[in-house]
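hey
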């Protein structure tokens, strides 16, 4: 039901993962359980989303062996630094209820504090060497961040997770990733991001785009399925988010049709070159007032309700 992508260290992950960004903690366990029962075997979360414990609960409730599920999570910037990031692993693993995390990535570069970013990545390398994680990577890294990281560290990231949808195709990032052998993983793969500071009054969801609607109609598919297929045919991993059971099932049902070269080029041509999310160069620990709680101080939303 899901095809696999091979990372640069040989680890294979399902190309279609399930995203839980902006899934409220009380909805997350149910969404994860629904997704696993619908056939997903890859969940993407982050310490900064505040729902790792509920992801673990959803996996347990599904009855599926956690060893069969690729669990991906991210270190938040307030935990950057060598020892801090080793501790961040302990916090995330405990909340998720696992001893090994499949894919552990840095959530953002911290351009103003790049040395702490490098130290955090060195901690990921240590965790990889120890067998505590199976693959390491980054998120929201632009080509110059990748180049700077490569100068200071030895392990090429396996994944770079970035905002990527038909209105923001990030061709320079995709090229840099490909040159280094990094899998590009799309967050907001169907353009569902909820803040569009650069788009002003002209903002319009890519889900309402006429070109995509036309391609979807010609294949008897939905716009979301066409966008996900576009990613997969171009070799990207995707992590669509939904809390709706029908849309959860729809987003993994994308393997029984093929976009042709004209379809792919038409979608590539929609790029506006304007991101919906934050500019990675502007991110700083003070950008968001988020501290990641210790594992023993976090109460599950589902346990407390
Ligand atoms: P919902 O959770 O109500 O389904 P992205 O992952 O690109 O950020 O998109 C997530 C957003 O898109 C969420 O608001 C989600 O809402 C919505 N969404 C997810 N799947 C679909 C779909 N198949 N069709 C339309 N909207 C979708």
């Amino acid at each position: 039901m899901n095809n696999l992508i091979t990372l640069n260290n040989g680890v294979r992950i399902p190309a279609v993962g399930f995203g839980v960004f902006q899934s409220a903690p009380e909805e997350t366990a149910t969404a994860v359980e629904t997704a696993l029962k619908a056939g997903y075997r890859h969940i993407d979360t982050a310490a900064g989303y505040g729902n790792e414990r509920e992801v673990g609960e959803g996996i347990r409730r599904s009855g599926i062996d956690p060893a069969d599920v690729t669990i991906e999570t991210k270190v938040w910037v307030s935990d950057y630094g060598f020892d801090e990031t080793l501790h961040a692993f302990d916090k995330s693993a405990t909340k998720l209820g696992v001893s090994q995390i499949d894919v552990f990535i840095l959530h953002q570069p911290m351009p103003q504090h790049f040395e702490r970013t490098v130290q955090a990545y060195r901690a990921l390398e240590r965790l990889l060497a120890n067998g505590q994680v199976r693959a390491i990577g980054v998120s929201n890294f632009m080509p110059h961040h990748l180049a700077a990281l490569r100068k200071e560290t030895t392990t090429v990231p396996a994944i770079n997770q970035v905002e990527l949808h038909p209105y923001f195709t990030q061709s320079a990032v995709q090229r840099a990733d490909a040159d280094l052998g990094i899998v590009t993983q799309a967050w907001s793969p169907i353009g569902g991001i909820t803040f569009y500071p650069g788009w002003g009054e002209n903002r319009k969801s890519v889900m309402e785009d006429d070109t995509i609607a036309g391609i979807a109609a010609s294949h008897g598919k939905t716009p979301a399925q066409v966008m996900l297929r576009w990613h997969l045919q171009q070799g990207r991993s995707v992590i669509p988010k939904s809390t709706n059971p029908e849309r959860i099932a729809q987003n993994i049902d994308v393997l029984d049709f093929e976009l042709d070269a004209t379809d792919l080029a038409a979608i590539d041509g929609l790029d506006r070159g304007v991101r919906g999310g934050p500019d990675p160069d502007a991110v700083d620990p003070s950008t968001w007032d988020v501290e990641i709680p210790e594992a023993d101080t976090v109460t599950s939303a589902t346990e407390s309700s």
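The chain has a mean pLDDT of 92. Residues 19, 188-193, 207, 222, 224, 240-244, 247, 250-251 surround adenosine-2'-5'-diphosphate (CB under 6 Å).
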